[in-house]
Specification:
The protein is mainly beta. It has 2 domains: 212 residues, no CATH class; 90 residues, no CATH class. The chain is built from 1 helix and 26 strands. Strand 15 and strand 16 form a beta hairpin. The two termini are 26 Å apart. It holds the Pfam family DUF2169. InterPro entries: DUF2169 (IPR018683). This is DUF2169 domain-containing protein.
Length: 334
């Protein structure tokens, strides 16, 4: 099974069982440099590789995903992710706005310098934020977290268990000195230590967090007895969408869509259109060719380079035909 990659992009192929059938998955990952002053993109000299497992910042139970796996069989819609840092226009500034617009996605998040709670005469007071110039956009800096301070009521923020600010009712966590989130909703800022707010972030959601875990299906005794090792019957393919729900575009992008991002580059605003380049696939099985379409279902905007990464994938059922798959050719159509 030879992979013939005729493109400048990274490409990989995988064979695995999907619903009891052997499936061939082809992933193509293209990295494009963004020229902020010209509102254009070009194929990058250095291409990001295909990621085969979720890469966390540390212990998966206490840190967020930095780079999500590219090895998933299908996504019914398009994930749009932001990666990098928020920047203030001046080093004396204490907050900034990170915002993005792409198709139906219009999202803004307030990024604030470090703040802590203090208690004075029984009242909780929020400190003034410290100035900053650069702050990494991580779920660890958004609202969330885990609270095990009260043995009778241990809880966690199911949408972001690695964040900060989450408290259960009857929490024994000290308020004085407790850190506030740096990333927060424009519409729902934190007002008091007990506030629960939707976490605001731009990066991948872990498989064990909501809403992804709600699509994973039911793994009970019936599943173990009758279905294992296959996925449960109520598994929902939306489980593979790793972007926050407000960063998922319906369907798949074609190229040419306008993108506007502010706050994640020292060069200022990033305005560009998605590249029209799209790869094609020809799989030789025995003496004939099959050409499943490569669909772009993931967009990653990396502010540090700056660059935009597009991920296309295609799958083909090859049950009983794996030895007959001779070549997998990836080429560009334009």
């Amino acid at each position: 099974m030879e992979l013939l990659n005729r493109t400048p992009f990274a490409a990989e192929r995988f064979v695995f069982l999907h619903e009891g059938l052997e499936m061939l998955l082809v992933v193509v990952k293209g990295t494009f440099t963004i020229h902020a002053q010209q509102d254009t993109t070009r194929v990058a000299d250095e291409q990001e590789p295909v990621v085969t497992v979720d890469e966390y910042g540390g212990d998966p139970t206490t840190s967020s995903i930095r780079r999500a796996t590219d090895v998933v069989p299908a996504k019914p819609a398009t994930d749009v992710l932001l990666r990098g840092h928020a920047y203030t226009t001046q080093r004396s500034r204490t907050e900034t706005l990170v915002a993005m617009q792409l198709g139906t996605i219009k999202k803004g998040v307030r990024v604030v310098g470090e703040r802590v709670w203090s208690q004075t005469f029984g009242s909780s007071v929020m400190s003034d934020p410290l100035p900053f110039h650069r702050m990494e956009l991580l779920w660890e800096r958004a609202f969330g977290g885990t609270d095990a301070s009260n043995p009778e009521n241990v809880g966690r923020c199911e949408e972001n268990p690695v964040g900060r600010g989450f408290r259960v009712r009857g929490s024994k966590l000290p308020v004085d000195g407790a850190m506030l989130p740096n990333l927060e909703s424009l519409a729902h800022p934190i007002q008091s230590p007990g506030d629960h707010r939707p976490p605001s972030g731009f990066g991948p959601i872990a498989p064990s967090w909501r809403p992804r875990v709600s699509y994973a299906g039911t793994y009970d005794d019936t599943w173990r007895k009758d279905v294992y090792p296959f996925l449960p019957k109520d598994f929902d393919v939306r489980f593979h969408q790793c972007a926050p729900p407000d960063q998922i575009l319906p369907g798949h992008v074609k190229g040419g869509e306008a993108v506007n991002v502010v706050g994640i580059s020292e060069t200022g605003q990033l305005r560009f259109t998605l590249p029209h380049i799209r790869p094609a696939l020809a799989i030789r099985v025995g003496n004939h060719f099959e050409e499943p379409p490569l669909l772009c279902d993931t967009i990653i905007i990396a502010g540090e380079r700056p660059a935009v990464i597009l991920i296309w994938r295609a799958s083909l059922i090859v049950q009983g035909r794996v030895p007959n798959v001779r070549t997998i050719e990836v080429k560009s159509l334009g």
